[in-house]
Amino acid sequence: MKSDIINHIKEYRNNNGWTQEELAAKAGVSRQSIVSIEKGKYIPSLPLALKFSELFGCSTDVLFQRKEVNKHG
Asked: For residues 38, 56, 50 and 59, what is the CA-based torsion angle, rounded to 10 degrees?
């Protein structure tokens, strides 16, 4: 099942010049967690989303957004 949440973690990570391993260490998670989050396969917990917000110096609503869903009917 595909998530309705998009994130900009990879973009912000790259802008900071951090590897996935470096971001994982800063956030206190595994590199595999970063991979899954960046691919949209995993939505981080609120505490982890807030940690990303602190690390990148931006609000969570900049990092995470809902996809626009077209409903037919």
From this structure: -100
Whole-model pTM?
0.86
Q: What's the CA gap between 64 and 71, in Å, rounded?
A: 21
Could you give the CA distance from residue 37 to residue 20 in angstroms, rounded to a whole number?
11
What confidence tens digit (pLDDT) does each residue in 5-31 have? 999 999 999 999 999 999 999 999 999
**CA proximity to 34, closest of 57, 56, 58, 52:** 52
Cα separation, 53 vs 73, whole angstroms:
37
CA distance 32 to 28: 12
65 vs 73: CA distance, rounded Å: 24
